[in-house]
Amino acid sequence: MRKLLGYILSPLTIVAFCLVLVIFQPLQWIAYKFFGYTAHKKVVDLLNLCLFSTFYLTGNRVIFINKQNLPIGRPIIFIANHQSLADIPPLIYYLRKYHAKFISKIELTKGIPSISYNLKYGGGANIDRNDSRQSITEIVKLANRMKENKWSTVIFPEGTRSKNGLVKPFQVGGIATILKKCPEALLVPIAINNSWKLTQYGFYPLNTFTKATWEVLEPIEPNGRPAEDLVKEAETRVKKALGQG
Question: What pTM value is reported for the model?
Answer without folding.
Answer: 0.96
